[in-house]
Amino acid sequence: MLKSEVTFLTQFQTGLVKIMKISFKIAISVILPSLICTLALLLFMKYTLTQNLLENLNKRMQTTCSDIEYSIIDSIATNNSIEANRILKNIKQQNKEVVYMYIQRPFGRVLASTFEEGVPADLIRLNNSNDKLVRSFNTKDGLIYDLNYPLLGGGFGTIHIGYSPILIINRINSLILQFLLFSFTVIVMSLLFFLFLTQSIVENINKLIYLAKRVSVGDFDSRVNIKSKDELENLAQSLNSMANDLKMHKIERLKMEERLKKEEEEEKRRELLRREISSLEKERKRISMEIHDGVMQTLASGQINLFHVIGNKEIPENLRERLRISYNIFKDAANDLRNLTVNLRPRMLEEVGLKRSVETLLERAQQNNNLDIEFIYDVGSKLHDYIELSLFRIIQEAINNVTKHANASFISVAIKEIDDKIELVIDDNGTGFEIDYKDKKYINSYGLIDMKERAESLGGSLSIERKGEGGTKIYASIPFKKENINR
Fold first, then answer.
1. Residues 6+ apart with CB under 8 A from 446
2. Taking a C-beta distance cutoff of 8 angstroms, is the pair 448, 464 a contact?
3. What is the pTM of this model?
4. Are 462 and 452 within 8 A, CB to CB?
5. Contact 442, 449 (CB under 8 A)
6. What is the DSSP pairing of strand 472-479 with strand 461-466?
């Protein structure tokens, strides 16, 4: 393994772990504490203010009763109900919290009240059945507190004053609303910062994904430019270095092939190609594992964090929509990575063999592109791992070309064992094309080059031609030595 590849592996892991920690810290240290503190302060404020203001209101009502006692005692002594009524109504007008007042003599007769049509019988009955100083009860107008204040120790009767806490409640609600507006502003600013940071990270990750895709198909000229002054920038530099190393490695291989054409036999060139393909498969497998264990886990963590943020009911709808867009970006990037890892590493080839793997490729093409498919597998001998892998890659590249460029509705794949050869035939009914191996388009087509080189590395050949009735036919013939029959 090249030194640059070792560096890429180490920094790839370290960089992605750092990204995950940053996202987690932002979500925990900014959003969650804000919500918890806001809720705790709201509850504390409401409880404390309610208790203090109600206590002050009770004291003021007792003071009011004391003032009434001082100013009305002469009217009570002379049973002057008219004067007593006037005094009570004047005091009620001066106190907005007071709902009603009435004076009840020791034997139950009401001397004066602020009620226009007399004190309700239910109210008198309720007060006579309870000797509490202050009691509360609900009415159609809300909660009412009733203060029972004895006149001169109770010898002259009692003053009943009913007062409502609605003004206090409104005042508390106003304070809480102001606090909520302030807290909402702080949370929104935090969320905007988190959204900006998340979008920046996703944008840089998408650039890395693009470069990984280009390298995976053999485009070693692509580069990515990230100036974030953090681990993502280091990771981008590592990927650029790896692509440059692979490019130089490819150039060196081409030069070596040219020399081998003049100096060595064809078998040596095929052996070189086999080693390169094996190295490329190992590199693909390693990159696939790094992407699966690194970037995909980071994306999953970002999705979870965004999901919880979106669920916050205090977030405005327009901001929630922008967060949903970020969440979908995470989701699409994860799907792209998942498809990329499958293409980089055909694990199913190791687990279920060539036949079932090709069937799976065709079934996916059928489901995703509405294709009619046909598959023929007539091989009785056990094939070497190199042969199975090369056949799988050729078929995989051909199917990708058909689904992306051919505009076909039918594809057929046939793998047959004929004497000491494996013959592969891939047919489609698309637009069709022919290959001129000296044409510049072919030289720049890494996928087609890879197909031909894989066949030649096994001592075989591969040709691509346009069919007269429309469509393309790919034919490959690969020699092999039989190891055993009836696999």
1. 217, 218, 219
2. yes
3. 0.38
4. yes
5. yes
6. antiparallel
Q: 121, 102 in Cβ contact below 8 A?
A: no
Helices (H) and strands (E) in the chain — how many of each? 13, 10
**The tokens of 199 are what?**
């979008």
Average pLDDT (123-142) is 71
Q: What is the spatial distance between Cα 70 and Cα 314, in angstroms, rounded to a whole number?
A: 53
Ordered by where they begin, the domains of the chain are 3-41+182-341 (no CATH), 49-172 (3.30.450.20), 347-479 (3.30.565.10)
116: its two tokens: 């226009």
Q: Write the pLDDT tens digit of every residue in 37-89.
A: 778 887 887 788 777 777 777 777 777 777 777 777 777 777 788 888 888 88
Query: What is the rounded end-to-end Cα distance, in angstroms, of the chain?
Result: 35
Q: Percentage of the chain with pLDDT > 70?
A: 77
Place of tokens 């970002």: 302
Stated as kind and residue range, the H or E segment containing 325 is helix 317-344
14 touches 231 (CB < 8 A):
yes
Alpha helices in 410-461 (DSSP H): 440-443, 446-457
Tokens of 257: 């092939």
Q: What is the DSSP string of 206-262?
A: HHHHHHHHHHHTT-TT-------SSHHHHHHHHHHHHHHHHHHHHHHHHHHHHHHHH
**Contact residues for 279 (Cβ-Cβ < 8 A; gap 6+):** none
